[in-house]
């Protein structure tokens, strides 16, 4: 089963007397059950994350796991320190758990490095198709409200579901999007993710599934 992706690059979609720039709709999907051994692995990994079990997590990290685009040594020991996974209050546990829960899909491009990737929109092609991946926002909930101001008691301009749209700026807990030259809309960060936000990949090595990268940026 493939991602349902309808590309309409820079298409102007009109709703509630406003315009927003859309790159298409990416319906959520999870293909982790397509491989029996991977399905079991993912279920166990999610339990590991819920338990905040650093030792069990460490065992599934690839020896050279990539976690940054900087000059740091890319290794499981450095990953452990960078994310402070031995600390049950580390931001890793919520960040990883919420990201993998969005859905895992089979790798379709550049698959020498990973067999499965997450979140689901990684295989949408947008990372390669847009000129500036940092300017793309993925709405991850149905009927996400777009507000006229960064406050939930402000006027709702429209609602959007699973849309990939242009991102203008950030403001506290809000993403800022452009409707037209005079109007900006605001969407809560719980309802959307940056296209180049946290993402990861798994590879089967010597009969064992490993997390080979968990990274953000481009």
Summarize the helices and strands and which ones pair or pack:
Layout: E1 5-15, E2 18-26, H1 36-51, H2 54-60, E3 61-66, H3 76-83, H4 92-100, E4 105-106, E5 116-118, H5 126-129, E6 136-139, E7 144-147, E8 156-160, E9 163-166, E10 169-171, E11 174-178, E12 184-188, E13 192-194, E14 199-205, E15 208-215
Parallel strand pairs: 3-15
Antiparallel strand pairs: 1-2, 2-9, 4-5, 5-14, 6-9, 6-13, 7-8, 10-11, 11-12, 14-15
Key structural traits:
SH3 type barrels; alpha+beta; five-stranded antiparallel β-sheet; single chain; 15 strands; 218 residues; Nuclear Transport Factor 2, Chain: A; five-stranded mixed β-sheet; 20% helix
Walkthrough of the structure:
- By secondary structure, the chain is α+β, with helices and mostly antiparallel strands.
- It folds into two domains: 5-29 and 125-190, SH3 type barrels (Roll); 32-124 and 196-215, Roll (Nuclear Transport Factor 2, Chain: A).
- 20% of the residues lie in helices and 36% in strands.
- It has helices at residues 36-51, 54-60, 76-83, 92-100, 126-129, and strands at residues 5-15, 18-26, 61-66, 105-106, 116-118, 136-139, 144-147, 156-160, 163-166, 169-171, 174-178, 184-188, 192-194, 199-205, 208-215.
- The strands form four sheets. It has a five-stranded antiparallel sheet, with no helix packed on it. It has a five-stranded mixed sheet with strand order 3-15-14-5-4. A three-stranded antiparallel sheet has the order 10-11-12, with no helix packed on it.
- The longest helix has 16 residues, at 36-51.
């Amino acid at each position: 089963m493939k991602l349902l992706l309808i590309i309409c690059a820079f298409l102007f979609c009109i709703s509630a007397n406003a315009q927003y720039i859309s790159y298409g709709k990416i319906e959520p999907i999870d293909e982790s059950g397509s491989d029996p051994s991977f399905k079991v692995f993912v279920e166990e990994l999610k339990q590991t994350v819920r338990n905040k079990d650093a030792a069990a997590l460490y065992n599934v990290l690839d020896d050279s796991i990539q976690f940054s685009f900087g000059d740091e040594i890319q290794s499981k020991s450095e990953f452990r320190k960078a994310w402070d996974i031995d600390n049950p209050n580390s931001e890793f546990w919520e960040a990883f758990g919420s990201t993998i829960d969005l859905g895992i899909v089979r790798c379709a491009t550049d698959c020498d490095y990973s067999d499965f990737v997450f979140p689901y929109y990684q295989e949408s092609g947008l990372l390669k198709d847009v000129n500036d991946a940092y300017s793309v926002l993925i709405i991850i909930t149905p009927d996400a409200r777009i507000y006229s101001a960064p406050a939930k008691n402000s006027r709702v301009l429209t609602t959007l579901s699973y849309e990939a749209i242009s991102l203008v700026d950030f403001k506290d807990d809000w993403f800022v999007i452009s409707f037209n030259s005079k109007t900006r809309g605001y969407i809560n960060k719980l309802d959307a993710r940056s296209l180049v936000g946290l993402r990861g990949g798994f590879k089967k090595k010597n009969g064992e599934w490993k997390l080979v990268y968990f990274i953000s940026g481009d």
